[in-house]
Amino acid sequence: MEPRIDLMQNEFGGKLAKRMYAVHSLVQQTGLPTATQNLVMLRASQINGCGNCIDIHAKEAAAEGETTTRLNLVAGWRHSTVFTEEEQAALAMTEEATRLADASDGVSDETWARAAKYYDENQLIGLVTLIAMINATNRMAVTLNQLGGSYEPGLMAAVVSS
C-alpha cells in the first residue's frame, strides 16, 4: 500500500494540517492534562485503525515521559490498573464519541457525568474537541493511506511551525 497523497508535501494539505494543529494548541490551553490528551488521541486512533496516528501519538507520548506499560495497555484500559479514574473517564468518552455509528445514543449520560466529575467545563470542551479532531485526522490519514512506522517525535510540531 502506497500513500495516495503526501499531505505535508501538498501546499493545501500543509495549510490544513497547520490549522488542525492550531486547534490542538487551543485544547492545550484548557488545562486538560497532556497525558490525558495523549491517551485520548492514541485510543481513538487505535479504534479507527490509523497506523500513522498510532505511530505519532505513541511516540510523542513516550517522548513526553509516558511509560511503555501504560502505552501498551491503552487498548485494554478497562482491564488494567495503571490509569487514574480521571483518565478512565476520558477514555470512556473517547470510545463512545469515536464509535457514534455503533452506539445509537452516542455518549451516554453516565459517561458524560463521569467525565464531568473530574473535568471542568473548559476541559470538557477541550476533551470533546480533541476527540472530534483526532477522529477527523484519523479519517483523513486512513483515506490517504498515510502509513505508520517511520515517525520521529517532534516532527509534527516542526513541520506545522515552519
TrEMBL record:
One of its GO terms (molecular function) is peroxiredoxin activity. Residues 25-96 form the Carboxymuconolactone decarboxylase-like domain. InterPro entries: AhpD-like, AhpD_core, CMD-like. PANTHER family: 4-CARBOXYMUCONOLACTONE DECARBOXYLASE FAMILY PROTEIN (AFU_ORTHOLOGUE AFUA_6G11590), BLL7811 PROTEIN. This is Carboxymuconolactone decarboxylase family protein. It comes from Kribbella sindirgiensis. The lineage of its organism: Bacteria, Bacillati, Actinomycetota, Actinomycetes, Propionibacteriales.
